[in-house]
Amino acid sequence: MALNLSLLDPAPVFAISGFGLPERALAWIVIAWGLVASVPLVVSLRKLAYKLMSRRNPQRVLVIGNGLLADQVVAEIDARPHLRHHVIGIVDESPRPPRRRCLGSVQDLRRIVEQSRPDRVIVALGSRRGRMPLRALLDLRVRGILVEDGADLYERLAGKIAIEALTPTSVIFCKDFRPQRRDLALARALSQPLVAAALVALAPVLALVALAIKLDSGGPVFFVQERVGRGGKRFKLIKFCTMRPARGATSEWVRDNGDRLTRVGRWLRRFRLDELPQLVNILKGDMNLVGPRPHPLSNLPLFVLVMRNAPSCGEPIPYYALRWMVRPGLTGWAQVRYRYANDLEEEVEKMRHDLYYIKHMSPWLDLRILFETVRIVLLGREAAVAPPVAATRVAAAPPASTVTPPAQRVAVGSGDRLVAGAVALAAGRPSAGS
Fold first, then answer.
1. What's the CATH class of domain 58-158?
2. What are residue 239's DSSP bridge partners?
3. Is 279 in contact with 267 (CB distance < 8 Å)?
4. pLDDT category of residue 176 using cuts at 50, 70 and 90
5. Which pLDDT does position 200 carry in this prediction?
6. Per residue in 179-197, pLDDT tens?
7. Sign of the CA dihedral 395, 396, 398, 404?
């Protein structure tokens, strides 16, 4: 293997085995592989940090709020005893029947703080307009008591966005919902060489899978479906066919199509091998290795409608379009943190993770997702179990003053499912999982 570097050429090129590779591209590849090599160090430092946190004295936490966000924050804190955070009580923001660990109302905040002596106060009010105890919270800050925003804490603990707490201003002025160009470039630099090498190395596996599908079902080997990618661009997504053709109208949910899975298809899905043909989509530039999974074009109106009506601020926020800021991925944060979605409520749960990824996109997060994906594929099981009940509810649709037609508003909550126009949108679509 010959390695030549021309120092006179203003754009030097490395010639490796007769193929020219620009110096800039090689630099990005070296950086990407350097990040991969540093992952064991990061994992070791993380374990050390957990050990140090487990030795410190528990912190007393007081939560202000009695709505969905407060329930989510309490559930996430209780689920992580290693953080040494103990919820000593909840301060209600409005009169309601007594609840567990309720210490009083917002009007009595000063008295409650004097009696309970918390180390930090979490503000998780459902609505802050006219309800925020500003003077009391300022006094707490002056006294050295840490005051945190409930939505930020929930995001940091759960690794997902509290959609119900979103407001138009929180989306407009948030600097994080804008992926940096270097992160986008690194994502491509990490994807392209890995995918090219994977296609060569996995060529025998791809051939064997195609043969097995043909012998098992006798039908087509590939399933091609129109999906939506970056900037709303449509593209043809390629998968191995794992299902028999539907005899009539069927839903998109996996649980409604279990009887259509072939013997080989069930095995392919268990180890995620049906997704391998999407390596071609990555080489074509339609996708990256890591990113939010692309939704079928047939489901797009439903998802846009539901996501817009999810925040409890009463104003429709079209934040589904935030997914289009980045290329979709073969795997993603939602895929390693959650399972296959089987209803609209679970799709909203995955959307929380997708928004978290877009907000915190970085090479480190991409590498973590790739390693988690390898672990899941090797184990051949679902990524995660169901989250706490408090974290799965979505607020009702906005009031009738918004532009959404009443027949098309969607409410997803405890006991609620698809209603009115959402049922019509969800029904009668060809399955995305074929």
1. alpha beta
2. 223
3. no
4. confident
5. 93
6. 778 878 888 887 888 899 9
7. positive
Supply the pTM of this predicted model.
Answer: 0.74
Distance CA 205, CA 273 (A): 10
What values do phi and psi take at 16, rounded to 5?
Answer: -115, 115
Per-residue pLDDT tens digits for 211-220: 999 999 888 9
The two beta strands, 234-240 and 222-228, are antiparallel
Give the SS3 label for residue 236.
Answer: strand
Contact (CB, 8 A) for 150 and 73: yes
SS3 content of the chain, % helix, strand, coil (to 5): 50, 15, 35
DSSP label at residue 261: B
Q: Please report the pLDDT score of residue 219 as a whole number.
A: 85
360-379 tens-digit pLDDT: 998 889 989 998 998 888 88
pLDDT of 22 over the 80 cut? no
In angstroms, rounded to a whole number, what is the distance separating the alpha carbons of residues 76 and 388? 8
Return d(Cα 288, Cα 366) in angstroms, integer. Answer: 10
The pLDDT assigned to 51 comes to: 63
Cβ contacts of 427 within 8 Å, gap of 6 or more:
249, 251
Q: What span, in angstroms and rounded, lies between the C-alpha atoms of 42 and 19?
A: 35
What span, in angstroms and rounded, lies between the C-alpha atoms of 18 and 25? 16
Q: Is 371 helix (H, G, I), strand (E, B) or coil?
A: helix
Name the residue ranges covered by the structural domains of the chain.
1-29, 58-158, 181-426
Report which DSSP code applies to 243. Answer: B
Q: pLDDT by residue (tens digit) across 226-249?
A: 999 998 899 999 999 998 887 766
Nearest in space to 345 (alpha carbons), one of 167, 74, 164? 164
Q: Residue written as tokens 């991925």?
A: 329
Which of 272, 271, 269, 205 minimizes the C-alpha distance to 242?
269
